[in-house]
Amino acid sequence: MDVKRLIFVTILALVLVTEGQTGVVFNFHDKLRMATATTTEDSVKTGQIIRVPDLDCPDGYRRDHLGNCRQRL
After folding, report:
1. Its domain of life (predicted)?
2. Is 51 helix (H, G, I), strand (E, B) or coil?
3. pTM above 0.90, yes or no
4. What number of helices (H) and strands (E) belong to the chain?
5. Is residue 22 predicted with pLDDT exceeding 70?
6. C-beta separation of 67 from 54 below 8 A
7. How far apart are CA 39 and CA 50, in angstroms?
């Protein structure tokens, strides 16, 4: 019974000690995510996004608000 109490107290103490430092861990992860994120300009420069000219839609199709050719209803 004493071993169970000792393990419980140890885990409880570790949780209480690390609880105050959780903001540091999340802040680190946010900064790491922001540092590794690529912007649209970077993607265009590295060739991940290819710019193509706007072509005319075929007969019977129209261009929607996103710029895609859709069949008229």
Report:
1. Eukaryota
2. coil
3. no
4. 3, 2
5. no
6. yes
7. 14
